[in-house]
Predict the 3D structure of the following.
Amino acid sequence: MATTIATAGALLALSPVPAQAATNAAPEIIPALQTWTGGEGAFELAPGARIVADPELEAVAHQFADDLSSVTGIVADVAVGGEARSGDLRLDLDADLESADGGALFDAEGYRLTIDQEGVEIAAPASQGAFWGTRTVLQALVQSPLRRSVPAGESIDWPNHSVRGFALDVGRRFFTPEFVRDYITMMSWYKLNQFQLHLNDNEIARPAGGWKDAYDGFRLKSDNPAFAGLASEDGAYDRADWQSFEDTAAAHAVTIVPEIDAPAHSRSFIRWKPQLGFNGGDSDHLDLSNPESTETIKAVFDEFVPWFEGPDVHFGADEYPRSGADQYREFFNTMAEHIRGLGKQPRAWGSMSVMHGSADGYDRDVVINSWNNGWYGMAKAEADGYRYINTNDGDLYVVPFANYYHGNGLNNAGLYATWLPNRLGSTAVVPEGAPEGAMFAVWNDLVHEDYTELDVHGLVRDSFPVIAQKTWDSQTPARSYGDFVDVQRRIGSGPGLTTIDQTGVARPGELSLGATVTASSSDDGMTAASLTDGLALTRWATSEDTADVRIELAESAPVGRIEVEWAGAAPASYDVDVSDDGVFWQRVADDVDGATASVELGSLQAKYVAVRDIRSDGAAGAVSAWRMSVFAPEPLTSGATATASGVEAAAFPPSLAIDGDDKTRWSANYVAQPWIAVDLGAKQTFGEVVLAWEGASAKDYVVEVSDDGASWRTAATKSGQAVGARVDTVTFEPVEARHVRVTVTAKNLSPYLSLFELTVPSTGGPEAWISAELAPEAPDADGGWYATVPTAEFAAGGTAGEASAIEYRLDGGDWSPAAGAVAIDGQGEQRLEYRATVGDRRVSGYGVVRVDTAAPSVEVGASRRPAVSTPSNPVRFTVDARDDGSGVAGVEVRLDGGAWTAWDGEDVVVEAPGRHTLEARATDAVGHVSEIAASPGPGRG
């Protein structure tokens, strides 16, 4: 596509080269950039970089600086006005900047991003576009090596729709202010710009005891006595809470759309004033024949609209009884006019088709949420001339944990592949660009169900980037959904969050999420636990020049690789070791170049993985990392091909069941016995298949194997499996085969069947290993010490060939052949090293063995001999205790045959006249006691 940019009266024609043909490919951003012209090289962010901003963009600049620090660790000063210098990031407000393709949408929210080796410039005609440009830069940085670079090039970017949002029902379930602020912040990360808060509602069905027993919620709390009793006692937002929402939204280019819903869904108002409802208040519908009903709702808006800083206010207006259609229409028109009188643009849920069969007589200056085709669909809204937003229930509603309206979350893969804002499902019902945009929505219908705000977030977390992608760049995406999810995982949910996404998510095959980590040193607030917490914006750092990190996995397992995401400058080098017991370690990699981010671990069995001797590059003077991840060996299904009986839709091919991503899936066609088969590429030996089912899971199935994909033999049969999403680990006698097939003979949710992942774990052993075993296996004294001489035996092997030339040495001595058991009879911490050749590979290991088989020694000295004290010249005794093993734990002394007392480490001075004798004895850390030493011994003068 050709894009024309006009600035300062001059036209500049830009014809972006397709990303794949450019020198630099487009950075992977969510939502994807509209255009990209690749340059050469990259901008490298460095300490000392500034954010130079036009005065009108000072607030954007400060938010950018805060987020830049969180994402990269670089603290950039904000310079308002002035010229940018090399290495700076520039924010430029240019009201004359235009795009012929972006038009008014570019004017409102578009930006031009220019990157070269000298710096970054974000130019936009409005502050909102400038802010979106900062999100693009941050997302590019967080995915780059060391989070420091952005590829050179230029993008002209703008949204295809002005409304890109989400609606949250806080009426039926209270969400904390912290959660709401986090959602505003998180939405902005994906350039979603409207957050609708549904502020009042009630349970759907009348309880047996009447509506007085129904749960309801009104979530705004005024200190005006006239509204006392309206706010919910179990949670409501006061003026300060709401202002915090508005402030957060203003800082993140998001608009809050408050919704106060009437005349249905109005139990809160009737609880407050029963005379407003039908049946003497036994209702959740306002009696619109009572003028007080409308006047009360107008008064509510009068009270709270001054809190609202956005241009639009929603007054609900859905699902009212058709018997009151004429009064409903009058209410609709009255409230629309009233809200405009308060200086706001009214919004409402479309209900005209059910209420009157058409929109005749309804106020047209209302933005309509088209939520249901029957009540009032997009085609009707388009024909009637309304501005409208696609909020279609069939595609975009989530009722958490219900058996309707996507109770387990939206069909994100389907939305990504075929849905657009002008479509219902994959079918276009209005022209492209006709809707203002789209919102998805959470409705907490199940008011008595036990779930939390974080449970809701878990259901919808992955829908935000999908809706962002399809409303910003409204076309069928070029990248697959699996690739899109990979980008989503890399960029995370953005900086500035305090409540959501505080628990990390494991990457495919990751063993170390949440593992215990220790480091030789850590700076304040940057602990080693950050390395395995799975969070994108926490990190470990130390100011020491060298450091060691040890990761303890939950259990011993074959390990495939370790990946390190260094923060700031990469270290000069580091070593990698693995251990199954934490005592003996096999060296996997020695003096790894610090720029290397991944080290293969060779399928060695390990419970511990250590990154040792991490050496600073000298210039940075510190070592820091965002994450260290230990992964299982690649499964046999990695790189395999999959076929199936069929698919529910093209968006869910069988390849998604072997892509290593538990968020993508194969969905079968509706045949009675669907199957999926995997070609491993060559014969493999295996005895395990892992099946991660979606909610539409298999009840009964057969696992079969084949050498040629034609003749099959049964490996395992499963029946009566649990309903819902689950992971089945199917084990069987090891077989040698190239193909594996799962045929489902009964479904839990017929006719549907979906499988997230089919995995055949790796069974290949390590190429080369070496180990040492001690006898006795466990130390026989406290503190990990051996009080008797232990022996060590060595072994080596692997798929690389026969083991030979096994040698050992102690404490840096000479290498000796390891023939049988080797006694470790030195005293103290003995460093035991060992090595061998396996096939043509050299392997080595080491461990430290603590040995203390001897008692400590102690000597007592006197200042003179004989040890006689006089009033003018007292005798002074000295005590010297030594232990070459575990160390002296304590010393006792006694004078002249008296009682034993603990020695305080000071010389013993005796002033009493006469001749004296001091005795001493020492105990080491493993309990050995020395012989008693007595004075007078050698004197001190």
Notes: The first helix runs from residue 58 to 72. The radius of gyration is 36 Å. The chain has 16 helices and 54 strands.
